[in-house]
Write a structure and sequence with these properties.
Keywords: Acyltransferase, Transferase. There is one protein chain. The protein has helices at 11-20, 25-39, 49-58, 74-83, 112-128, 137-140, 142-161, 188-198, 237-257, and strands at residues 42-45, 63-67, 94-99, 131-134, 165-168, 204-211, 223-227. By secondary structure, the chain is an alpha/beta fold. It has one domain: Glycerol-3-phosphate (1)-acyltransferase (3-Layer(aba) Sandwich). Helix 2 packs across helix 4 (74-83) and helix 7 (142-161) packs across helix 8.
């Protein structure tokens, strides 16, 4: 299948493509290893979390990794942390939700040949990391993205049912206020969980708190705290989102304390 232009009006073709897209796992593992060497995150775990995470992976249990969103470099920090942690075995089969503008292949303010090369390279990097585009209501309007959002959630649930895991920044945008306090977590993550359940999958929640230090902060040697709450997520999407926010906030606070 040809790679479609990632644009809202092209949402059907976009999600048909990312429903099936699979990156080269060997290349992905090499890239994650390189990012780990560059960003050098300091990974710590909640009590028993490393063992629970390894057991989930060994038992081939699907999980959703929820991460707080502090900066544009967060996906690279998460990739580095995955390589440096018990998450390493799932590199190459984890889908990552990313805003649609990261998949755009041109920029208007640069010479055409250079901007195509740079943005094509960026799109391929995002795809190599398992990216699935998200059309955000803050960028396009709530009504405009409604159908695309439903397609995206269906693709995520289907990928979970086919053996992938999923990483999400559930705040939806970078935290430009107090990075120690989680922003609002929308119900999208809850809808993905409920749709996965209709496909016979019960995803487990894994939370990852990121902290880069006092403002302006450094994007290397981030403090990363991973936990695997020993819980079953609630039934309703809104309740799921609240539960995710509760446990992710604790992970954020611990990443700050451990910086």
């Amino acid at each position: 299948m040809d790679r479609p232009v990632v644009a809202l009006e092209n949402a059907d073709a976009v999600y048909d493509y990312y429903r099936e897209h699979q990156q080269n796992r060997r290349v992905t593992r090499l890239a994650y290893g390189a990012l780990a060497g560059r960003f050098r995150p300091r990974v710590r775990y909640g009590d028993g979390a490393r063992e629970r995470l390894r057991a989930l992976i060994y038992d081939d249990t699907r999980f959703i990794l929820a991460v707080n969103h502090v900066s544009e470099t967060d996906p690279y920090t998460v990739a580095a942390a995955a390589w440096s942690s018990a998450l390493r075995p799932v590199i190459g089969r984890t889908r990552v939700l990313a805003k649609d503008e990261l998949f755009v292949e041109t920029e208007p303010n640069r010479p055409r040949t250079r901007r195509i090369a740079e943005r094509t390279s960026q799109r391929r990097r995002i795809e190599m990391m398992g990216g699935i585009p998200v059309f955000r209501s803050r960028d396009h309007g709530l009504r405009a993205v409604s159908r695309a959002g439903n397609l995206m959630m269906d693709v995520c649930a289907e990928r979970l049912s086919r053996g992938d895991d999923l990483a999400i920044f559930p705040e939806g945008t970078c935290n430009e206020g107090d990075p120690t306090v989680l922003q609002h977590v929308g119900s999208g993550i809850g809808h993905i969980v409920t749709r996965a359940r209709t496909r016979g999958v019960e995803p487990r929640l894994v939370v990852m708190g990121l902290h880069y230090g006092p403002p302006p902060g450094r994007y290397r040697s981030a403090s990363v705290h991973i936990d695997v709450p020993d819980i079953v997520l609630p039934d309703k999407p809104v309740s799921i989102a609240r539960t995710v926010a509760e446990y992710l906030q604790v992970a954020v606070e611990l990443s700050v304390r451990q910086y």
